[in-house]
């Protein structure tokens, strides 16, 4: 705590002031409040949650084990400590697809996946110093729901967290600490790679504006599998066989396609997650350039289709020619976790 | 006062009578029985230490096993290298202290790499300084970064503690990112090269500071921005240097990341509950999950870097962290990164990227080679890129020639090949050669091979290489560079005997055709070594004459003095037969090329130094001597009043060494002539003059030894000549003290050789020189009073004078009287006591002179004892002298009457004199006895006598009293 040393000096007169008489408290209300906030810092009880597993990643059915840590300088009385495990899918409608107002009002109710409350300590006192209270929470979805994989998207996010609450008396604020943990969703079945060979030429361009100033090129490529394990990188290779214009850059773009269903129909939006350059400058021809992209954690999850929402992924191969002409090839992929 | 009266009667009867002595008898009495000893008293002490040393030796000298890979000092995966790289105390310091920037870093890494050297792993630091020196630019450079604040002190935001949630943490980090990106990314334009280097150093410091303040994201950002600089080839000539500078920062970053994770990983050894630090040779399964997680996070973060080049470099920088995972992950990563470079279009950037990968890889995983092969293979495959229009356009735009552009590749290509050739056998070598030939027979790659492969492999195939060089495609990479590389390799390893001449012929055919003197000199500089090493007189002469022929027109040589000096140094390194070398007709003409004075001196110094170093035996070849003499003369003439002392000393030393090497054997006269010549040539250097006098004295003594003391008329004339040489030479010295010593020495030598008049002249000169002695002398650079020296010198002189026979043409003891006059007149700084001591020494000598038979003689020289035969008249002279001296002493005592200090001195001096009388005077003589008694009472009068001195004197008296009745009488008188 950066403020821990200095305030100690300020704190003495303060406690006297508060204890000495109420009038004083009122007249210098602002200043005192300022001091009181310090007071909390010093007298401070710190509430923390520590997980045994360093990765903080769990699967459904596993037990989240850890400790709730209470650290206080003096004795600390409280009205009970609880620990809540929460998990929910929050959905938001894109203003692009349904309009600003509707987006604001119609945000869909979050879907609760997990909710468990645990009493950590009954009302009482914690001794001065560090108190560690171990806990274990089995991960089990609510009702007949599944624990989907943690995912942070633009319109959809699936989040799990542990929240520790300490209720305290009149004078002190209640303490709260929350900690996100991650859930992996295992599909379990082994992957059968779905390789794809492709060739890009001006002839198989789709929405070119004018065919006249398109450079001549032939680009061969291979994607090792369109069915991807989330822990493995997306791989493949690409070879420039011929190209009349020099190439400026080649990139792999990872897109998420999020679909939210609601009463008024559904909204589908594709947004970029990340863009990875795989070639820079006018690369040599006839040599296979590797395609390689690691799926970023949290921002990717296994492809998911439910009644209410869908999370899907796509990859764009982007070739930028000198003169900023851009060639894009789209590959929908399916992400799973094995 | 009273005291005064007492003395007046005391000192009235001052005359001195020496005691008669029988030296042989005294000697026999003094000599105790001696027997041979079997054990040395210090033997026990000495022996064990010797033993300890001899025991230690094999330990320190034990060589690491020869196969590089099984060597315990090997690279990455084995234990010791982990220590060197992660626990290097210097690097820890560098990480800890913010101020220690890249310099200590560089140092520590070089130490680290030194450990690798023994394993044969190529050494990057060797290459590094070369690159920095070679690839420079005067163009303006620019840096794009947000971390170099032109706004002054960097306002470092304190990182908020323990953000509550992951998203909070992320927000915090994003804020950090925004902080850097909010328009603070600046392009610094128009930086000179020095500025640029300075800025990069600042970046390095900023990186370490950020890391220490726990701003990991900022540190990563700095690393990424640095790596980004390598994507910029706007000033191509500087690119290799930029690569060196920037990768240094990346190395720092890699080390920081690795060390942090390593420090944080603790594990519980089996059977123990306490966590301990990971051992240096940890295995992946010992690494705790949390460390792996941190590690993985780093790699995740880096894998999401958008741009290819920074992503490549930063991942390569922290590749070592893969050692926390399974071994296969590291090798996979190396291979993957090797292929990733294919995406870099600019061939220059790609080449250096591969170079960096190899550089990192060979340290962390020296056993893996496939990625290096891949790098090399890709280099070959993409070689044609260099000729692609986009590259050539860029090159012409920057106004550099294709050949200059190609040389920019050298360090990178060399390094990759060096890693390739590290630990490679002949088969692989041939294979690589074939690959290069087939895919792109380019001079650049061939040059890389020439510079990187082991010299032995090259030397074996030298003839093939020459053919390859001749035939390789000329893409603008100059062939002379190829020949140069070949030459420098051949100077390290010898080609087969049968090929030697063929190689020389082929190569020189090419070299001699080079028109541009600078190119010619560069080649000649490398190849001269080969010629000097393997060939004889004829070839050397030819090559030298070729060099002269090329450089003489238009006085071209004036521009290449440094190169010519190297050529000279190389010649002298290899040819140690100076008779042969100096007799080469072209060698001297080559030396004549050094016409500028300062250069001429340098050349002379090189020659003389080499001569002194390699000429182990003495020489008498007139050609050699006259050549070296000439060089020494050049050196000598370079010294003037403005020269530094050090320079003078080193030149003198060289010349002295040369003088010592010259030995005409039994031809003494020629030797003396040589010394005469030397004296004429080296007049300005005191040490040389001193040396010459010593040499001549030595020569004179050698002559005496040869004739066993029986000088023939011829030899006696010769030794007289030697004495004369000394007599003439000594006065030219600046330093009076050396003069004094040399006078005495030469006089003694002359006396030994029975050159009486010469000896007398030298003694006289010595006495005269004493008068001019300065009062201070410098010893080890500090000024010191010369009194001690003078006193010692006079005492030494006196004992020599004892045996010098008087010159019948002059009075008795003329030298002695002269010296006495000097003593009388000399200005002593620390007071009169010194003079009294000297007088006492004179009295001792006089006592010796008045003996019937002297204590020592010079062989075949009649001293005064035989000359005068103990004649009364002579003794009277001596006595007269003694009386004068005693009077002087007593007069001095008279002056010491008042004051505590004076009385103390008086007591001291009188005791000294008393002691002297007891030791040397005849106490049977009543006057002497009385004098002694009076002196004693004077010394005791004010009870200031030093008790120690009294005891000493009393012991002497007691000993005397045992054999001498007068002494015992005196003792009784005193005690009673």
UniProtKB/TrEMBL annotation, chain A:
Keyword set includes Cytoplasm: no
Keyword Secreted: no
Domain of life per record: Eukaryota
Location of the protein in the cell: Endosome
Transmembrane feature ranges: 20-47
Keyword annotations: Endosome, Membrane, Transmembrane, Transmembrane helix
GO biological-process terms attached to the record: intracellular protein transport
A Gene Ontology cellular-component term: endosome
Predominant subcellular localization, coarse grouping: other
Entry similarity comment: Belongs to the VPS26 family.
Oligomeric and partner information: Component of the commander complex that is essential for endosomal recycling of transmembrane cargos; the commander complex is composed of the CCC subcomplex and the retriever subcomplex. Component of the heterotrimeric retriever complex consisting of VPS26C, VPS29 and VPS35L; within the complex interacts with VPS35L. Interacts with SNX17 (via C-terminus); the interaction is direct and associates SNX17 with the retriever complex. Interacts with SNX31; the interaction is direct.
PANTHER family the record matches: VACUOLAR PROTEIN SORTING 26 RELATED
Function: Component of the commander complex that is essential for endosomal recycling of transmembrane cargos; the commander complex is composed of the CCC subcomplex and the retriever subcomplex. Component of the retriever complex, which is a heterotrimeric complex related to retromer cargo-selective complex (CSC) and essential for retromer-independent retrieval and recycling of numerous cargos such as integrin alpha-5/beta-1 (ITGA5:ITGB1). The recruitment of the retriever complex to the endosomal membrane involves CCC and WASH complexes.
Protein name as annotated: Vacuolar protein sorting-associated protein 26C
Organism: Bugula neritina
Automatic annotation (TrEMBL), chain B:
GO cellular component: endosome
Keywords: Endosome, Protein transport, Transport
InterPro entries reported in the protein's UniProt record: VPS35L (IPR029705)
Statement: the UniProt record of this protein carries the keyword Protein transport: yes
GO biological process, one term: protein transport
Segments for region (Disordered): 25-44, 53-85
Keyword Lipid biosynthesis: no
Biased composition regions of type Basic and acidic residues, renumbered to the chain: 25-36
Compartment(s) where it occurs, according to its Swiss-Prot or TrEMBL record: Endosome
Primary site of residence: other
Entry's family note: Belongs to the VPS35L family.
Name of this chain's protein: C16orf62
Species assigned in the record: Bugula neritina (Brown bryozoan)
């Amino acid at each position: 705590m950066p403020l821990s040393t200095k305030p100690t000096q300020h704190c003495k007169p303060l406690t006297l002031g508060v204890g000495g008489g109420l009038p004083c408290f009122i007249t210098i209300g602002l200043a005192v409040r300022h001091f009181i906030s310090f007071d909390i810092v010093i007298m401070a009880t710190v509430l923390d949650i520590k997980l045994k597993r360093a990765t903080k990643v769990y699967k459904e059915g596993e037990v989240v084990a850890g400790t709730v840590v209470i650290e206080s300088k003096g004795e600390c009385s409280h009205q009970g400590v609880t620990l809540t495990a929460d998990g929910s899918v929050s959905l938001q409608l894109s203003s692009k697809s349904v309009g600003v107002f509707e987006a604001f009002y119609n945000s869909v109710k979050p879907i609760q996946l997990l909710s468990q409350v645990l009493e950590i300590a009954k009302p009482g006192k914690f001794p001065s110093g560090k108190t560690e209270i171990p806990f274990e929470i089995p991960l089990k979805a609510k009702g007949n729901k599944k624990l989907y994989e943690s995912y942070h998207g633009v319109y959809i996010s699936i989040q799990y967290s542990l929240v520790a609450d300490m209720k305290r008396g009149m004078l002190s604020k209640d303490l709260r600490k929350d900690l996100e943990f991650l859930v992996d969703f295992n599909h379990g079945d082994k992957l059968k790679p779905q390789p794809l060979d492709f060739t890009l030429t001006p002839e198989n361009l789709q929405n070119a504006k004018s065919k006249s100033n398109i450079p001549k090129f032939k680009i061969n490529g291979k994607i090792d599998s369109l069915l991807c394990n989330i822990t493995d990188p997306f791989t493949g290779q690409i070879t420039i066989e011929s190209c009349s214009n020099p190439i400026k850059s080649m990139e792999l773009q990872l897109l998420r396609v999020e679909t939210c269903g609601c009463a008024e129909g559904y909204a589908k939006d594709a947004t970029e997650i990340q863009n990875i350059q795989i070639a820079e400058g006018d690369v040599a021809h006839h040599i296979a350039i590797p395609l390689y992209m690691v799926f970023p954690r949290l921002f990717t999850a296994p492809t998911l289709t439910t009644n209410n929402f869908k999370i899907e992924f796509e990859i764009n191969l982007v070739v930028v020619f000198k003169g900023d002409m851009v060639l894009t090839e789209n590959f929908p992929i399916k992400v799973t976790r094995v | 006062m009273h005291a005064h009266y007492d003395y007046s009667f005391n000192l009235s009867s001052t005359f001195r009578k020496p005691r008669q002595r029988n030296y042989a008898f005294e000697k026999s009495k003094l000599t105790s029985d001696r027997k041979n000893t079997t054990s040395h008293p210090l033997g026990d002490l000495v022996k064990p230490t010797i033993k300890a040393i001899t025991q230690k030796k094999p330990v320190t000298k034990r060589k690491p096993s020869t196969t590089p890979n099984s060597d315990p000092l090997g690279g990455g995966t084995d234990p010791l290298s982990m220590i060197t790289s992660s626990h290097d105390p210097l690097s820890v310091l560098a990480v800890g202290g913010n101020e220690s920037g890249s310099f200590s870093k560089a140092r520590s890494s070089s130490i680290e790499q030194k450990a690798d050297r023994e394993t044969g792993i190529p050494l990057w630091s060797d290459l590094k300084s070369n690159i920095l020196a070679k690839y420079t630019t005067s163009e303006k450079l620019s840096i794009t970064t947000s971390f170099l604040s032109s706004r002054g002190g960097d306002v470092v935001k304190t990182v908020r503690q323990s953000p509550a949630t992951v998203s909070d943490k992320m927000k915090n980090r994003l804020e950090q990112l925004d902080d850097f990106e909010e328009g603070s990314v600046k392009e610094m334009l128009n930086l000179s090269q020095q500025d640029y280097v300075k800025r990069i150093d600042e970046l390095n410091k900023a990186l370490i500071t950020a890391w220490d303040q726990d701003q990991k994201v900022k540190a990563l950002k700095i690393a990424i921005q640095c790596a980004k600089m390598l994507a910029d080839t706007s000033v191509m000539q500087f690119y290799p240097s930029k690569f060196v500078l920037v990768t240094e920062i990346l190395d720092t970053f890699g080390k920081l990341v690795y060390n942090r994770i390593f420090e944080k990983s603790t594990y519980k050894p089996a059977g123990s509950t306490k966590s301990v630090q990971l051992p240096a040779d940890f295995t992946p399964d010992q690494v705790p999950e949390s460390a792996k997680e941190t590690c993985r996070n780093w790699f995740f973060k880096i894998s999401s870097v958008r741009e290819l080049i920074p992503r490549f470099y930063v991942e390569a920088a922290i590749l070592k962290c893969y050692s926390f995972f399974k071994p296969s992950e590291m090798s996979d990563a190396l291979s993957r990164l090797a292929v990733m470079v294919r995406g870099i279009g600019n061939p220059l950037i790609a080449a250096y990227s591969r170079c960096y990968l190899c550089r990192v890889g060979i340290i962390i995983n020296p056993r893996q080679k496939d990625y290096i092969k891949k790098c090399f293979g890709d280099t070959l495959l993409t070689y044609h890129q260099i000729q692609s229009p986009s590259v050539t356009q860029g090159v012409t735009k920057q106004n550099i020639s294709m050949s200059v552009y190609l040389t920019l590749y050298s360090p990178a290509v060399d390094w990759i090949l060096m890693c390739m050739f590290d630990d490679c056998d002949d088969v692989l070598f041939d294979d690589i050669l074939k690959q290069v030939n087939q895919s792109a027979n380019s001079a650049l790659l061939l040059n890389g091979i020439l510079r990187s492969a082991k010299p032995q492999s090259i030397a074996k195939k030298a003839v093939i290489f020459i053919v390859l060089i001749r035939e390789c495609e000329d893409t603008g990479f100059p062939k002379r560079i190829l020949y140069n590389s070949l030459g420098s390799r051949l100077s390290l390893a010898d080609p087969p005997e049968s090929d030697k001449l063929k190689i020389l012929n082929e190569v020189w055919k090419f070299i001699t055709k080079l028109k541009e003197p600078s190119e010619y000199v560069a080649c000649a500089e490398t190849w001269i070594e080969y010629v000097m090493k393997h060939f004889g007189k004829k070839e050397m002469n030819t090559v030298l004459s070729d060099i002269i022929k090329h450089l003489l027109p238009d006085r071209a040589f004036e521009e290449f003095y440094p190169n010519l000096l190297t050529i000279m140094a190389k010649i002298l390194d290899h040819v140690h037969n100076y008779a042969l070398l100096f007799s080469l007709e072209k060698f001297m003409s080559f030396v004549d090329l050094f016409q500028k004075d300062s250069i001429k001196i340098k050349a002379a110094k090189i020659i003389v130094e080499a001569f002194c170093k390699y000429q182990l035996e003495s020489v008498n070849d007139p050609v050699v001597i006259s050549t070296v003499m000439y060089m020494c003369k050049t050196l000598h003439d370079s010294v003037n009043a403005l020269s530094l002392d050090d320079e003078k000393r080193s030149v003198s030393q060289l010349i002295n060494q040369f003088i010592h090497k010259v030995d005409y054997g039994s031809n003494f006269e020629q030797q003396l002539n040589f010394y005469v010549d030397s004296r004429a040539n080296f007049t300005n250097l005191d040490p040389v003059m001193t040396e010459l006098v010593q040499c001549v004295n030595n020569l004179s003594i050698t002559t005496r030894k040869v004739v066993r003391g029986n000088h023939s008329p011829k030899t006696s004339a010769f030794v007289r000549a030697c004495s004369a040489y000394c007599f003439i030479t000594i006065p030219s010295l600046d330093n009076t003290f050396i003069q004094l010593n040399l006078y005495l020495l030469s006089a003694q030598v002359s006396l030994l050789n029975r050159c009486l008049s010469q000896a007398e002249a030298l003694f006289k000169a010595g006495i005269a020189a004493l008068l001019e002695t300065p009062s201070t002398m410098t010893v080890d650079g500090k000024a010191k009073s010369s009194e001690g020296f003078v006193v010692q010198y006079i005492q030494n002189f006196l004992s020599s004078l004892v045996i010098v026979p008087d010159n019948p043409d002059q009075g008795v003891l003329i030298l002695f009287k002269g010296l006495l006059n000097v003593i009388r007149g000399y200005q002593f700084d620390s007071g009169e006591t010194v003079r009294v001591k000297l007088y006492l020494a004179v009295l001792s000598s006089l006592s010796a002179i008045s003996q019937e038979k002297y204590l020592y003689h010079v062989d075949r020289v009649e001293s005064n004892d035989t000359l005068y035969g103990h004649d009364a008249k002579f003794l009277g002279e001596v006595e007269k002298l003694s009386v004068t001296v005693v009077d002087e002493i007593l007069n001095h005592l008279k002056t010491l009457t008042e004051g505590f200090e004076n009385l103390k001195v008086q007591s001291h001096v009188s005791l000294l004199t008393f002691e002297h009388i007891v030791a040397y005077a005849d106490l049977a003589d009543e006057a002497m006895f009385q004098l002694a008694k009076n002196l004693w009472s004077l010394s005791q009068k004010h009870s200031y006598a030093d008790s120690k001195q009294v005891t000493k004197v009393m012991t002497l008296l007691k000993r005397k009293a045992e054999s001498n009745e007068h002494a015992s009488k005196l003792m009784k008188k005193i005690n009673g």
